[in-house]
Amino acid sequence: xxxxxxxxxxxxxxxxxxxxxxxxxxxxxxxxxxxxxxxxxxxxxxxxxxxxxxxxxxxxxxxxxxxxxxxxxxxxxxxxxxxxxxxxxxxxxxxxxxxxxxxxxxxxxxxxxxxxxxxxxxxxxxxxxxxxxxxxxxxxxxxxxxxxxxxxxxxxxxxxxxxxxxxxxxxxxxxxxxxxxxxxxxxxxxxxxxxxxxxxxxxxxxxxxxxxxxxxxxxxxxxxxxxxxxxxxxxxxxxxxxxxxxxxxxxxxxxxxxxxxxxxxxxxxxxxxxxxxxxxxxxxxxxxxxxxxxxxxxxxxxxxxxxxxxxxxxxxxxxxxxxxxxxxxxxxxxxxxxxxxxxxxxxxxxxxxxxxxxxxxxxxxxxxxxxxxxxxxxxxxxxxxxxxxxxxxxxxxxxxxxxxxxxxxxxxxxxxxxxxxxxxxxxxxxxxxxxxxxxxxxxxxxxxxxxxxxxxx
Length: 457
Ligand SMILES: Cc1cc2nc3c(=O)[nH]c(=O)nc-3n(C[C@H](O)[C@H](O)[C@H](O)COP(=O)(O)OP(=O)(O)OC[C@H]3O[C@@H](n4cnc5c(N)ncnc54)[C@H](O)[C@@H]3O)c2cc1C
What we know:
alpha/beta, Rossmann fold, Serine Threonine Protein Phosphatase 5, Tetratricopeptide repeat, DNA Cyclobutane Dipyrimidine Photolyase, subunit A, domain 3, 3 domains, five-stranded parallel sheet, 21 helices, globular, binds flavin-adenine dinucleotide, DNA_photolyase_N
């Protein structure tokens, strides 16, 4: 009798180096490749217009790749994944359901519900914990705790961990005949404005980007990854978030190149955040290390920050990059997040929510925990440091080219005044339509430090 396995795709939307898909293909004669548009996600802030667009691109790309391997293509359902999978098990007689382990609160609830639903059907749920993570949560722990709270010792252990081989894409994937279902239009999943300059989603685009970057940019990464204008980072984060590119394949390939260690280290941060979230799912909303902060409620300043009109060009350029591309350079994220949580002393949760709406790579582990890191409520060992946007601009955008690219009002300003337009003669400033600074940096810093000292527990 012909055997069937279901490969339930989540954020592992790829053919290459996908242990979940490959295990399903090895376990059975036919694989039913399934994606469920989860009602819990569709109705929540998890799905934003930008991410819906990228997701739909990735689903189409996967569908094509499956068809090229003899499958009928991606089966799409909408509803509760547990209910939809159980129904397909009943329809096809599938004996196994293969799923990539994931560690957000939502993913853990989904896995539990699926396990329960399958218990009645007789089908087995097979979890794969090395599809989304390189080193999964729990694989390395300190002696006395269930997770690492400092990155450097974690990274050391992470590097020593044996790593699985990179897997080829399956060559053939025959599938059973079931109603296929349609990949919806992105607009029907999530209404609202999309960023005007979104990259193409999906594995094909992700692999092209990965290979291009590996060919050209590995040696310069360590020295130039903070250069805002140079834009020398991989920009692979959305592809890693949706699993269109495998983190294991990326670190394996980058690690073989001279200078690749610096990139490998950044990808380890991703696993570090995942192991923290897995152990403390509440950090999605609660401080990891609270200081008794009484954050300021300053709607006017928060609006200026969101709109990229704070009067600090480096902050405004980065905020406008986010809205324009659904992505922001890491150095920009550090500068803008420090400005919001420290100089303005506004709650990191407000900033994280705004980022999550726009970012293509927005995910609970990396977004919330990086925000907490910058706000000093997370794992930074120097929680009260405040980044000075002017010093940051001097170091990471010394010629002002990043600011000119994203803040058209300042495109014609030459010299250091591009970062300090208040130093321009009044008659020039009057023509710029660019705001005065909304806060004095020294006063903001002082206010933050006093509040922290006063409120620290
Ligand atoms: C306030 C704030 C919010 C952030 N929110 C997110 C988010 O929602 N999703 C997200 O993927 N990253 C987030 N980051 C981390 C980092 O900014 C992005 O991963 C990076 O800018 C993505 O660009 P890249 O792919 O070119 O990175 P590269 O420099 O090319 O790095 C390669 C990969 O390593 C991983 N990586 C790099 N830096 C970090 C980091 N600090 N933490 C975790 N993983 C990292 C990413 O997967 C990235 O794609 C955030 C950082 C800050 C300061």
